[in-house]
């Protein structure tokens, strides 16, 4: 399964037949199917049908499209060889299609290694059987099996997250939890830990935490004012319980996901924060909370894309590090580095060539 910072696995991978599979992914969405800005962020779910294995390059491509705000109308994608069938919400007006297609083409051209040809259609074609895509029966089953599109953020009991109100008596301080946090096996975290200095780790982890909390429906002003001591780890199946102030006199606890909980615990441990600290202090004045501008910069598409590009670059460099490991093994076994082998044979070749030239000059004196 490919890795993604922007998309979370909601369901899958599920086999439809011997070679065809699908997954359902979700993400934070700030645009409507009409490509208009939403009053508040929503959760978008969409399905991807593919054969054999889901390509990392496809996920990377969809992330670039999402960062440009052109995924909001998408309900289902079928990847078949070099063809992408993108099925859109039936409510999207035809006038919005040119702008949508332009963004997808631009995202495709930004990476010349992408081989896909993209075609757009409405999900109504799948429901009515009018689609010329050979996978339409499978696609129709997926559409009917999952609530795809935009939905309100809900918890595992299908309640709005803002209504969740667990008792603090059943919770543990997040600071105490972070002190006992062990290493995780997340692939991105392994790359981050191995190649980044501490300051860069802190920046990336902070952006990931903020993005995850926004995905959970926590409001921006609540995120900027969060104190470490106001966060509790629930002993239930949930993640973190974050104090939400409805008025000056009343408050409730908003629930975040387990993914957000893991990120926040890592963030607290890496930055050595205590209960009296802001969860996201200002970089310019640590005793104050981060400003709204700092929060916007932390989740700006360009910042996220920079983090993605770094991780992909490091991922692509893995063969280079593997080669160095092999070279070290050769050196250990043979007593010298592999370049020494090359130099040895080059020296022998040069010696033979010198002898040949000398004999030629001897046989043909001027």
UniProtKB/TrEMBL annotation:
InterPro entries: DNA_brk_join_enz, Integrase-like_cat_sf, Integrase_catalytic. Keywords: DNA recombination. The keyword Transcription regulation does not apply. Residues 185-349 form the Tyr recombinase domain. The keyword Acetylation does not apply. GO terms for biological process: DNA integration; DNA recombination. Pfam families: Phage_integrase (PF00589). Coiled coil: none annotated. GO terms for molecular function: DNA binding. This is Tyr recombinase domain-containing protein.
């Amino acid at each position: 399964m490919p890795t993604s910072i922007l998309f979370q696995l909601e369901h899958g991978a599920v086999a439809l037949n011997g070679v065809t599979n699908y997954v359902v992914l979700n993400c934070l969405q700030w645009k409507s199917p009409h490509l208009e800005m939403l009053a508040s962020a929503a959760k978008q779910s969409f399905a991807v049908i593919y054969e054999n294995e889901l390509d990392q390059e496809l996920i990377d491509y969809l992330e670039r499209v999402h960062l440009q705000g052109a995924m909001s109308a998408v309900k289902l994608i079928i990847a078949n060889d070099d063809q992408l069938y993108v099925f859109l919400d039936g409510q999207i007006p035809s006038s919005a299609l040119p702008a949508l297609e332009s963004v997808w083409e631009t995202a495709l051209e930004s990476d010349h290694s992408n081989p896909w040809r993209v075609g757009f259609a409405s999900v109504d074609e799948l429901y009515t059987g009018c689609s010329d895509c050979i996978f339409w029966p499978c696609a129709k089953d997926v559409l009917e099996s999952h609530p795809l599109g935009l939905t309100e953020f809900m918890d595992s009991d299908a309640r709005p997250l803002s209504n969740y109100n667990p008792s603090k008596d059943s919770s543990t301080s997040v600071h105490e939890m972070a002190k006992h946090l062990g290493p995780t096996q997340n692939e991105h975290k392994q790359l981050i830990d191995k190649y980044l200095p501490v300051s860069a780790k802190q920046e990336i982890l902070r952006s990931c935490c903020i993005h995850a909390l926004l995905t959970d429906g926590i409001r921006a002003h609540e995120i900027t004012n969060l104190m470490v001591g106001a966060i509790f780890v629930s002993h239930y199946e949930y993640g973190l319980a974050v104090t939400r102030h409805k008025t000056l006199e009343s408050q409730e606890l908003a629930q975040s996901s387990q993914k957000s909980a893991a990120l926040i615990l890592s963030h607290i441990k890496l930055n050595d924060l205590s209960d009296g600290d802001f969860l996201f202090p200002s970089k310019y004045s640590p005793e104050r909370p981060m400003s709204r501008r700092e929060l916007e910069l932390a989740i700006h598409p360009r910042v996220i894309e920079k983090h993605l590009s770094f991780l992909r670059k490091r991922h692509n460099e893995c063969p280079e590090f593997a080669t160095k490991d092999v070279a070290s093994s050769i050196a250990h076994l043979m007593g010298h580095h592999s370049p020494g082998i090359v130099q040895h044979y080059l020296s022998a070749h040069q010696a033979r060539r010198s002898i040949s030239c000398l004999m030629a000059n001897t046989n043909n004196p001027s």
